[in-house]
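Incident log, entry 3
Record: Aldo/keto reductase (324 residues)
Problem: checksum mismatch between cached and fresh output.
Input:
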Amino acid sequence: MEYTTLGSTGTTVSKICLGCMSFGDSDWREWVLDEAEGKALVKRALELGVNFFDTANMYSNGESERILGEALEGHREESVVATKAYFQMDETDPNSGGLSRKAIEQELENSLDRLGMETIDLFQIHRWDYETPIEETLAALDDAVRRGKVRHIGASSMWAHQFAEALHASDREGYDRFATMQNHYNLAYREEERETLPLCEQEGIGVMPWSPLARGYLTRPHEDVDATLRGETEEHLYEHPYREGGGPAVNERVAELADEKGVKMAQIALAWLFHKEWVDTPIVGTTSVEHLEDAVEALDIDLSASDVEWLEEPYEPVRVSGHE
Ligand SMILES: NC(=O)c1ccc[n+]([C@@H]2O[C@H](COP(=O)([O-])OP(=O)(O)OC[C@H]3O[C@@H](n4cnc5c(N)ncnc54)[C@H](OP(=O)(O)O)[C@@H]3O)[C@@H](O)[C@H]2O)c1
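Fresh output:
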């Protein structure tokens, strides 16, 4: 395993973060692994040297956090655990979502309970809350850090101007600032290169892209994308604009280079991200131990500058996707 420092936090994380949306409860999403398989995935990740895990309160309605917490028993100190809040957890209770002080404090306590932990290493806001002033959210997050419930705070997909506003508000008010950005970024979706990634670079923010394999679109020829259970059943795979613009041509180039190098398409797509200076650690989602091992092996793939240029060349700007 290779390790890096997460933004300006000083925390060392593996260059692969295990995405824990893949396990919890298959009643939530059909393709999601149940408890025993989820724990086996975490166990293998630990053996491979993965020390960074990303979950969220909403994944399988809390089951992902509960399973991750149990799977990390005996390994808590050597792991770096990230979770998120924002999406409404109880449809009858509007205060179980959003980023008000009440929602943050309650959801943080619920996450700590499910994880069975006293502190969360990275507590992230899953989206921007248009109903709550950012100062209210930051004050509640800052208190959580001061109370020792959270070590660092992070943000996820939002407009660059919102992220800049939040960083500025923290500096102005003397609050802890967002240390990380978890955004939508992969070879088939590169709109983040316009504003958010340069902002993160300038501000020393740790970048941890979600859906680094475009939810599977970059792991097999585009005509076979629905060949797996997730490919067949996950609506997000079709909502994101991977098939638009130069997407199919990018997919074909990934396949061609993978063939040339004798590796898998998923490994080329990850290797491309590992070669991007502004990325700290992609959050890899998988339901397969073998695919997790592929991801680790991809760290050894050397791409030349002309490989990178060739992979990127067909990309065309597409509509923004991942936040509103
Ligand atoms: N902040 C946010 O709003 C947000 C949004 C989405 C996701 N996330 C985070 O990001 C993580 C990853 O997201 P994701 O699962 O959507 O995206 P992903 O990593 O881009 O894609 C996962 C898909 O790729 C396939 N795959 C992975 N490795 C493969 C390999 N070696 N060969 C063939 N297929 C392979 C998986 O299939 P198999 O299961 O068969 O391996 C799965 O269908 C999540 O777990 C979550 O932690 C955050």
